[in-house]
Amino acid sequence: MSNESETRSSKEISRQSGQIGVREISVAGLSGLIGMAAMQPIFGVATILGVLDPVAFSGFANIVGYGLNFWGGVAIFVLGGMTVLPLLFITLGNYLPPANSVPLRGVTFGTIIWTGFVLAFYTDQSGVSLVIYLVMTLVNHWVYGAVLGTVYTRYASIAAYEV
After folding, report:
1. Residue 12 placed within a domain
2. 3-class secondary structure for 2-17?
3. SS3 state at 143
4. First CA to last CA across the chain, in angstroms?
5. What is the domain extent for residue 138?
6. Distance (Å) of CA 41 to CA 28, 35, 148
7. What value does the mean pLDDT take over residues 82-93?
8. Does residue 13 fall inside a structural domain?
9. How much is the CA Rg of the chain, to the nearest whole Å?
10. What is the rounded average pLDDT of the residues 91-112?
11. Buried b / exposed e across 145-156, counting CB within 10 Å, b at 16+?
12. Of 24, 67, 131, 142, which sees the most CB atoms within 10 A?
């Protein structure tokens, strides 16, 4: 049996059994990391345009009890994007629309998590600045979700559960 057949076989076993193992968790973390990297150009442009204030990351660190620390906030943000969010996605992925595309399910997932981001990182933008902030961060979360879904589905399979 070839390595490719073994990999596909383990993906199908995972999907059919509804189990999430070390392989799925590892692939989810890698997918989240690549998704976080894909977000950085848009975050950079939003920062340059002045619609995303890097100080918001310090506030994010403060919310979770880490103090007003920019790098601490960035670390928490990236680690969450590599652990909590991908694990949530692979757990709930089969329940998100559309049924025929995991990358598009990732976009749906990105839209859902975006709602928390816009509240947590809002820094009194208004008018055109607010609209640009909303649009750029939404597109950025679509990018994250699409990359998360694409990379994950390339190397693993979303588990299917009997309900």
Report:
1. no
2. CHHHHHHHHHHHHHHH
3. helix
4. 33
5. 29-155
6. 22, 12, 16
7. 93
8. no
9. 17
10. 92
11. bbbbbbbbbeeb
12. 24
Instruction: Name the token pair of 146.
Output: 């699409």
* Residue whose token pair is 């999907």: 15
Q: What is the pLDDT of residue 26?
A: 94
Contacts of 52 (CB under 8 A, 6+ apart): 43, 46, 121, 133, 136, 137
State the DSSP H helix or E strand holding residue 142, giving kind and residue range, or none if neither. helix 127-155
Residue 34 lies in a domain: yes
Per the domain annotation, does 50 fall within a domain? Answer: yes
- Residue 98 CB burial class (10 angstroms; 0-12, 13-18, ≥19): exposed
Q: How far is CA 103 from CA 61, 117, 145, in A?
A: 30, 20, 7
Question: How many domains is the chain built from?
Answer: 1
Question: At residue 121, does pLDDT exceed 60?
Answer: yes
Can you tell me the distance from the alpha carbon of 153 to that of 23, in angstroms, rounded to the nearest whole number? 12
**1 — pLDDT class (breaks 50, 70, 90):** very low
